[in-house]
Each structure stands twice: as C-alpha cells, then as structure tokens.
Amino acid sequence: MHGPGDAAPARPAAAALTAREVDIIRLAGLGLTNEDIGRRLSISPATAKTHIRNAMRKIDVHDRAQLVAYVHRSGLGL
Question: Which residues, 6 or more positions from 39, have their beta carbon under 8 angstroms from its beta carbon?
Fold first, then answer.
C-alpha cells in the first residue's frame, strides 16, 4: 500500500516492447483505429489489435485511453 507521500509505481519501460508494437502504439496514439493502422501497415485489423493488446499487457495499461496517454508521456508520440 502506498502512503500519501509515496510516488506511484513506475510503468514498465517501452524497452519491453517490440519495434512493431512501438510502431503500432504510436499510430494508436495518433487516434488511428485498428482498421486505419492495418491499412497503413498492410496488416489485418486483427493483427493490429493483437499487437496493441500485447503492448498494453507489457506496459500495464488497461484501456486505449491509458495507452494513448502512455504514448504521449513516454515520448513515443510522433
């Protein structure tokens, strides 16, 4: 448990992500849908979704809004 003066635990570093996951979450950070990401990278929307889900698990975020915030906070945004 954390006290009032304790810092929140740090999120895992982007270094845990593959290069493809970084590419895809950058695009998600721009607001692109899985379909948009798929078209841009010539992959299926399902593959984009899988990469996003794996990245979210690795960096311990639980929804797309948290993912977008992580991309911007970590300097991964384009």
Answer: none
